[in-house]
Prior knowledge:
Layout: E1 2-5, H1 7-23, H2 26-44, E2 52-53, E3 58-63, E4 68-76, E5 79-87, H3 93-99
Parallel strand pairs: 1-5
Antiparallel strand pairs: 2-3, 3-4, 4-5
Amino acid sequence: MRIIFSKIANNSYEAIIEFLSVVWTEREIDIFIDDAQKIVSQLKDGKFKLHQSYSKDIRSALIGKKHVRMFFKKENREEIRILLFFDMRQNPDKINDLLK
């Protein structure tokens, strides 16, 4: 399975890493990065349905001490698109706007 990161996913991932570098320790940042890589590996192995359903086509997983939700969508049989990394301490109404 091929994994593609959307522009919003790349930007939100970098913004979260930047924020965490101010608030968290290096060890906690490493845990966050490891969690994200673990989910990507699971998706590459075809374990899409293993994760929580957000909508009909979109699934998500909690990462980084469960403060960040990673959203992804199966585009076709060979490709999964990572849509967004969202800090769950924000207003959840933003999720729908960002996923459009």
